[in-house]
Amino acid sequence: SDSSEEGEKRDQVIELGPHRIKTSDLPPGLDQKAIWLAEEALKKNQMDKEAATEIKLGLDSEETFSTNDEGAWHVIVGNHFASAITYDTKYLLFFDLLDFNKSVLIFKSGQFCT
């Protein structure tokens, strides 16, 4: 039935390529899903900006990343960059995808902005 198929999908293990998490403040399990989204986006897009846009669209459309909190997901993809950001607690992931030689910064910000 449909409910058993949904249960099987939730129980599937996500296979990830080599990566290094620099910092994570995401709820358990979401970091793996975000890394997978980034890998898939980088496989399809040669430009960092296009990959970042695809990751953001994935975060916005993925039910597990949508919350009742206000704010927007932000994604930065590149080889070398520095940042100073303000983010909402429990919504930050910074990691390297070693096969792609890319760093990815994902965060949600704006919940408390007026």
Structural class: alpha+beta
Largest β-sheet summary: 4 strands, antiparallel
Report the principal-axis shape.
globular
**Overall pLDDT confidence:** 83
Rg, alpha carbons: 14 Å
Number of strands: 4
Strand content: 15-25%
Strand order of the largest sheet: 1-3-4-2
Share in helix: 25-40%
N→C terminal distance: 46 Å
Oligomer: single chain
Q: What is the count of helical runs?
A: 3
Q: SSE string, helix = H, strand = E?
A: HEHHEEE
Unreliable spans are: 1-10
Keywords, separated by commas or semicolons:
globular; alpha+beta; 4 strands; 4-stranded antiparallel sheet; 114 residues; 3 helices
A few lines on this structure:
The chain is 34% helix and 24% strand. The chain has helices at residues 2-11, 30-44, 48-61, and strands at 19-24, 72-78, 92-97, 102-109.
Structure notes:
The protein has 114 residues and is of the alpha+beta class. It is 34% helix and 24% strand. A 4-stranded antiparallel β-sheet has the order 1-3-4-2. A hairpin with a 4-residue loop joins strand 3 (92-97) and strand 4 (102-109). The longest helix has 15 residues, at 30-44. The termini are far apart.
Topology:
Elements: H1 2-11, E1 19-24, H2 30-44, H3 48-61, E2 72-78, E3 92-97, E4 102-109
Helix pairs in contact: 2-3
